[in-house]
Amino acid sequence: MAADFGNLRYQSGFGNEFASADPRVPDALPEGQNSPQKCPHGLYAEQLSGTAFTAPRHTNQRSWLYRIRPSVIHTPFTPLNNQDVFAIDTTPTPNQTRWNPFPLPSKHERKDFADNIYTVAKGGSVGARSGLEIHVYSCNASMENRAVYNSDGDYLIVPQQGVLEVKTEFGLMRVEPLEICVIPQGIRFSVNVSGESRGYILEVYGTHFQIPDLGPIGANGLANPRDFQTPVAWFEDVDVENFEILNKYQGHWFKSVQDHSPFDVVGWHGNYCPYKYDLRKFMVINTVSFDHCDPSIFTVLTAPSLKPGTAIADFVIFPPRWGVATNTFRPPYFHRNCMSEYMGLIAGCYEAKETGFRPGGGSLHSIMTPHGPDALCFEKASNEELKPQRVAEGTMSFMFESSLHLFITNRAKNENIDVDYWKDWQPIKKHFKLPK
Ligand SMILES: O=C(O)Cc1cc(O)ccc1O
Ligand SMILES: [Fe+2]
């Protein structure tokens, strides 16, 4: 059956124990056990583990898939020829870095999602299972008879332009700009697009995304669990000569082929699965008195490290909201941070930058590198009348914030760079006058 992305249903909740069978085979899931001697309808049982078997119960993640063939039927993997893209720069730079919008493929070339994942920066260690990578993708064609899976980490995908129709082993998701999706480590997926598409990817290794604890905020607010949506089971029984399976493994890409679609999971149950989230559903919490809350108040998802409160990566958004703070410099403050801050822009413009930071572009403020509002923004916000005001209307920017040092790839260090970025702060005036 051809995938129909027109009218999809989802299961609601974050981290739930879901169970789903394709409606064509409602009794696909074995009852009361995972591995019966014979599974219903001649299906194969296969477990996909997202955490160590022995991880504490509240973090333990795994799913059981009931599929037409087990995933193991494929030819040996061979390396793909694009390893240079992933080579990291050996000379770090502490400079503020800004990228112009990453180019879309030209009309004369056919690029699918997997062809054009461009790594901008990475940190930590893929071998030590603790780290992250930041990529941008741009494509104009659908993946045909190819699927990707990542052995290194989880992908959080942020479309900036173009709808993504995502086929996964767990079912189908339609993800449009202002929505995001997460494809955890190991899950096979492919992406259809209809036109020029671009976006950002945050990859985290050795951890998984959680919704942050709310502390004194209480039981409700920020990203509410019910707004996360997981696919329902969907399968295709397709035999083809060459179905390519692309695998990112220890920072390198490999390819194998098999003679059938991997999207042959008829039913599944478990708590390790892909999901999507609509950023417009984020309940923004912020000051109603004075001063500027740290941007952690806008955390949608956090991928924790082993150090309490310190993330391998946080996914933070800056949504439209009211600004009401009294006697306050309202935009982001000047600061130096013990974390790395990569920012991207989905739509509109960012409150701390009047110009230069454009949708589809990015910026990186590294550990302890000073940054903050540009000169124009500072003067305006220091002098404007402080009425209740809509902030960031019609815009959406985001930050991938990491406790790790990030290294910019050779390619991203040379391509697409806004060489004048540092100049944004140079007109900042000295206002100080010694009291007489
Ligand atoms: O640097 C940035 O623009 C991100 C940011 C936003 C904010 O409101 C406070 C601190 C911060 O790092
Ligand atoms: Fe910052």
From TrEMBL:
UniProt-listed Enzyme Commission number(s): 1.13.11.5
UniProt pathway: Amino-acid degradation; L-phenylalanine degradation; acetoacetate and fumarate from L-phenylalanine: step 4/6
GO biological process, one term: L-phenylalanine catabolic process
Residues involved in homogentisate binding: 350, 371
Active site: 292
Domain Homogentisate 1,2-dioxygenase N-terminal: 9-279
Keyword Glycoprotein: no
Residue ranges of domain Homogentisate 1,2-dioxygenase C-terminal in the record: 280-432
Reaction catalyzed: homogentisate + O2 = 4-maleylacetoacetate + H(+)
An example molecular function term from Gene Ontology annotations: homogentisate 1,2-dioxygenase activity
CC terms in the record's Gene Ontology section: cytoplasm
Pfam family, one: HgmA_C
Domain of life: Eukaryota
Annotated binding of Fe cation, by residue: 335, 341, 371
Keywords: Dioxygenase, Iron, Metal-binding, Oxidoreductase, Phenylalanine catabolism, Tyrosine catabolism
Cofactor(s) essential for the protein: Fe cation
Entry similarity comment: Belongs to the homogentisate dioxygenase family.
Protein's recorded name: Homogentisate 1,2-dioxygenase
Protein species of origin: Caenorhabditis angaria
Lineage of the organism: Eukaryota, Metazoa, Ecdysozoa, Nematoda, Chromadorea
